[in-house]
Design goal:
CATH architecture of chain B: 2-Layer Sandwich
Structural class of chain B: alpha/beta
Number of strands of chain A: 14
CATH class of the largest domain in chain A: Alpha Beta
Radius of gyration of chain B: 14 Å
Oligomer: heterodimer
Shape of chain A: elongated
Largest sheet of chain B: 5 strands, mixed
Structural class of chain A: alpha+beta
Helix content of chain A: 25-40%
CATH topology of the largest domain in chain A: Phosphatase 2c, domain 1
Number of domains of chain A: 2
Order of helices and strands of chain B: EEHEHEHEH
Distance between the termini of chain B: 27 Å
Helix content of chain B: 25-40%
Chain lengths: ~350, ~130
């Protein structure tokens, strides 16, 4: 494929050559490829005495050719016009490629989000996923743990990257987390298994932060572990917020990673809030961060309310804080409420 | 983000970061650090006193620099999936690795490094002299 194909496929070339020919009193003006063959305009085949190179970047891709009667400035002008057309076509192709990649990444990412939440008596789920313009790598999930009645696993995760590579890694991590949670002895063991696979078999420049919680829906007991992720929150219906801190490194970066596991209990009326740094790192027009303090204060005010209302309170406050500023990261939240008796 | 290089000896370079380290500039940081390694530096001291913010891209940059100063190639950030199986894991178990050192950790950056586990491969020192001495 020749670099001139974009010109030969378009309509501008013939008109430009005809115009140049007319300006030179009807003299032959044509376009030649790098082998010297005239591929458009006149005269076909023969190589006219005058030419002016057409450059794309630092590469000569062809030339504008004409007879002795064609002024060199006119050849230069036509060559320059064709260079601009070629550069425009190339930029457009690049934009289409990048845009296409982003769209594919976005489709993969959306396909990973749960279509519905587990149907559990006494528990309510609410989630928000608001993608930024550039595709990020956020994921949330809620699923019943295999062969363990009353156990629900909650996942929130964030890949440090964008586009198709981030989306593919997220698909991988989602499947690994499911399998590990089903087979492991608790969330810390599950994260350890997923990390081992990522380090051993899928070494990458991308990393994943994740929080994994296993909830006993009969008792409200929560076992949780974290891989470098923002600590999930418990909004106590009595009116305060607890951060579920558990130390553990990002997934995929350290071969010998160890993960802490802790426990908490969700009483009726309490709610869990899982979020990604897209929430706390939302910026306003003057580039200030929304921040953890404001999030905690806001969730404290929403304590004791249903999952959907807690979610709405956070999203509304973050959106109001952001104002007209462009969202630069995905905004992802999962709220799980143990309904009051 | 601005970077200032202080080449205290042929083997040791101090790189001071000023501003925000995020997706817009983390590749430059990797290139700057890789350039210092190519130029003979074998110990990199990162002075983070004036670093006000570090996103997850910053984690990738610091991790990559730790690989570079161990004499490994960091994964190609553009190549994506094809590199996933091509590079080896970074931490040989039990290996002592302190080629990249941190000084002047602010509380905000400290939280990020602690939470992500990066402090495991990036020892933190109280000041430049302590970091250079190792």
């Amino acid at each position: 494929m020749s670099a001139l194909d974009d010109l030969l496929d378009g309509h501008a070339l013939a008109g430009l050559l005809a115009l140049a020919s007319a300006a030179a009193g009807g003299a032959a003006v044509g376009l030649a490829d790098t082998d010297g063959h005239v591929v458009a305009g006149r005269p076909a085949g023969a190589i006219p005495p005058r030419d002016h190179p057409i450059a794309l970047g630092d590469r000569v891709v062809g030339s504008v050719v004409g007879g002795d009667e064609v002024p060199p400035e006119l050849l230069a002008l036509v060559a320059r016009s064709l260079e601009l057309l070629l550069a425009g076509a190339r930029d457009q192709a690049n934009q289409a490629r990048v845009g296409g990649e982003m769209a594919i990444g976005r489709r993969i990412q959306l396909s990973l989000l749960p279509r519905r939440f587990p149907d559990v008596e006494g528990w309510t789920f609410a989630a928000q996923y608001e993608p930024a313009r550039e595709v990020g790598g956020d994921l949330f999930d809620a699923f019943a743990v295999r062969e363990q009645a009353d156990r629900i696993a909650l996942v929130i995760a964030d890949v440090t990257g964008k586009g198709i590579p981030a989306a593919l890694l997220m698909a991988d991590v989602k499947a690994l987390l499911h399998a590990a949670t089903d087979n492991a002895d608790g969330p810390a063991d599950a994260l350890r298994r997923v990390n081992a696979v990522l380090v051993r078999e899928r070494a990458t420049s991308l990393f994943v932060t994740a929080a994994l919680l296993v909830v006993d829906v009969a008792t409200g007991q929560v076992r949780y572990a974290s891989a470098g992720h923002e600590p999930p929150l418990i909004a106590r219906c009595a009116g305060w917020v607890e951060q579920l801190e558990a130390s553990g490194p990002i997934l995929g970066a350290f071969g010998d990673a160890a993960f802490e596991e802790h426990m908490a209990t969700l009483e009726p009326g309490d709610a869990l809030t899982l979020y990604t740094d897209g929430v706390t790192e939302t910026r306003d027009a003057s580039r200030r961060f929304y921040g953890e303090d404001r999030l905690l204060a806001n969730v404290t005010l929403a304590c004791g309310r249903p999952a959907e209302e807690i979610l709405r309170a956070i999203v509304d406050d973050v959106t109001a804080f952001r104002g007209d500023a462009e969202p630069f990261d995905d905004l992802t939240l999962l709220v799980v409420e143990r309904r009051p008796r | 983000m601005n970077t200032t290089i202080d080449r205290v000896s042929p083997e040791v370079a101090v790189l001071a970061l000023d501003g925000e380290l995020d997706a817009s500039n983390y590749r430059e940081l990797i290139e700057t650090g890789s350039g210092l390694y190519a130029d003979g530096a074998r110990c990199l001291v990162l002075d983070l006193a004036q670093l006000s913010y570090m996103s997850s891209s910053g984690i990738v940059a610091l991790h990559s620099l730790a690989l570079v100063f161990r004499g490994q190639q960091p994964p190609d950030l553009e190549a994506g999936w094809s590199t996933f199986h091509a590079v080896s894991a970074d931490t040989a178990e039990g290996a002592v690795a302190d080629q990249v050192r941190i000084v002047a950790l602010t509380p905000a950056i400290d939280t990020v490094l602690e939470r992500t586990g990066l402090k495991r491969i990036l020892p933190v020192y109280a000041d430049r002299d302590a970091a250079i001495a190792g």
